[in-house]
Design a protein that fits this description.
The chain is an alpha+beta fold and about 300 residues long. The protein has three domains: about 90 residues, Pseudouridine synthase, CATH 3.30.2350.10; about 130 residues, Pseudouridine synthase, CATH 3.30.2350; about 60 residues, PUA domain (Archaeosine Trna-guanine Transglycosylase, Chain: A, domain 4, Roll), CATH 2.30.130. Helix content is about 20%, strand content about 35%.
């Protein structure tokens, strides 16, 4: 009988390149076991069909994981025209096939029509909850639940390659966007139907797949090398402005005392309600906001976590 792993207090962010075939939770648990981390969470689900960037938070970094759910995302998507499936992707049963007579000009026009603010109806094969149960559970049972229209934004959509009846595109979008639904809607606009045949996430907020690690690469490293791959928690928050506190102001903030904005150099430039990263030198303290002339704590990081500068 194998001895149980000893879970440890590990703090930091791992940029994981999730493989196809694993759910986000399965990938999270495999990464957690590699680091023997006592606490872990991810920052946004990727379907088993999809690969790519899955930021994994360990220990105190999980305090900030939820903020990444609101971050913009970027995907590389492969689309197959002429075939509709029950799930909107390659895992579903084929519902119908239609001939594809689409010019490059029509395809480009259809992509452009989906740029900007658009409405989507979330797919039944999704993890959205209805009465405490995921929609895909109803779908597997042959039930269809009415879903509210969701307003999302496609910041940019770019055709990368086209070899009819397939094409690939880069999509940068707001939170809550379903790329499979986008593929289906483009197919309907082109009068031939479509499904998503492949998906890879390349960006989540300020984080990039370029610096992500695979499970296989991590497994081949020793413990010290693996730990060196972790990023500090504030890597999740680089889209937010930063402010510097002196040692006394930092101490008062950590102890829950009032810190007036005029007590530090950056205070005068903070707008009311603005959420800001707070630092004492290179040490990340957490998130604060300006409230009635003082700093209001949003979320602090325990300083005993041993932050990497």
């Amino acid at each position: 009988m194998q001895p149980r792993s000893r879970w440890k207090a590990v703090h930091g962010v791992l940029l994981l390149d999730k493989p196809i075939g694993l759910s986000s939770n399965d990938a999270l648990q495999k990464a957690r076991r590699l680091f023997q981390a006592a606490r872990a969470g991810h920052t946004g689900t990727l379907d088993p069909l999809a690969s790519g960037l899955l930021p994994v938070c360990f220990g105190d970094a999980t305090r900030f994981a939820g903020l990444m759910l609101d971050a913009d995302k970027e995907y590389l998507a492969q689309v197959r025209l002429g075939v509709r499936t029950s799930t909107g992707d390659a895992e579903g049963e084929i519902l119908d096939t239609r001939p594809v007579d689409v010019s490059l000009e029509r395809l480009l026009s259809a992509l452009a029509a989906h740029r900007g603010d658009i409405d989507q109806i979330p797919p039944m094969h999704s993890a959205l909850k209805h009465q405490g149960k995921a929609l895909y559970e109803y779908a597997r049972a042959g039930e269809t639940i009415e879903r509210a229209v969701r307003h999302v934004r496609i910041h940019d959509i770019e055709l990368l390659d086209c070899a009819m009846p397939a094409f690939s595109m880069r999509v940068r979008c707001s939170k809550g966007t379903y790329i499979r639904t986008l593929a289906e809607d483009i197919g309907e606009m082109l009068d031939c139907g479509a499904h998503l045949s492949g998906l890879r996430r390349t960006l989540t907020g300020p984080l990039s797949l370029d610096t992500a690690h695979t499970l296989e690469t991590l497994a081949a490293l020793d413990e010290a090398q693996r730990m060196d791959r972790l990023l500090p928690p504030d890597c999740l928050l680089q889209d937010l402005p930063a402010c510097q506190l002196d040692g006394e102001s930092a101490r008062r903030l950590i102890q829950g005392q009032i810190v007036p904005l005029e007590a530090f150099a950056d205070g005068g430039s903070m707008a009311e309600g603005q959420v800001t990263r707070a630092y004492d030198g290179k040490v990340f303290l957490g998130l604060v906001s300006a409230c009635s002339g003082r700093l209001q704590v949003k979320r602090l990081l325990p300083q005993e976590s041993g932050q990497k500068a």
